[in-house]
Every structure is written in C-alpha cells, then in structure tokens.
Design brief:
By secondary structure, the protein is mainly α. The chain contains three helices and no strands. α2 runs antiparallel to α3. The relative contact order is 0.18.
C-alpha cells in the first residue's frame, strides 16, 4: 500500500508536510541563532537559558506553522 491508496489528495498532504517542515527548520535555525544575542543584550546569561527557550519556542511555533500551512494548502479538499 503506497501513498496513492492513502487518500485521493496524497500530493497535497505531501506538499503540506514538505512546506511546513521547511518553515519549522528555518524558524528554528533563526530562533536558535538570534535568541542568545537577544538574551545577552537583555542582561541574561545566554548559555544557560537559550536551550529551553529555543526548544519551547520551536515546538509551539512548529505546531502553529504546520496547522497554518495545512489550512492554506488543504482548504477546500480535506478541510
């Protein structure tokens, strides 16, 4: 059983996953590189506080990015 048997809109599902994965990785890279600089400017120690903030921020915004992309791409077909 392959993608064709999964649903009639398997290419849209694959496109949704691809676009959202690119968005999440891009946002995670930007947040991971910019957050320590922001924390240093605010007077906090970036070495101890950046990892939990980045992980939480990327997890939460990853879900938002995924569902937003799914809403935009799959509107009218599966949603």
């Amino acid at each position: 059983m392959g993608w064709a048997h999964y649903t009639d809109h398997y290419l849209l599902v694959a496109l949704t996953i691809r676009v959202s994965l690119i968005g999440v990785v891009t946002f995670g890279s930007l947040a991971g590189s910019m957050l320590p600089l922001v924390l240093r400017r605010l007077g906090f120690d970036p070495a101890t506080s950046s990892a939990p903030f980045v992980a939480t921020l990327v997890d939460v915004t990853g879900l938002v990015i995924y569902f937003t992309v799914a809403l935009l791409i799959l509107r009218g077909t599966l949603l």
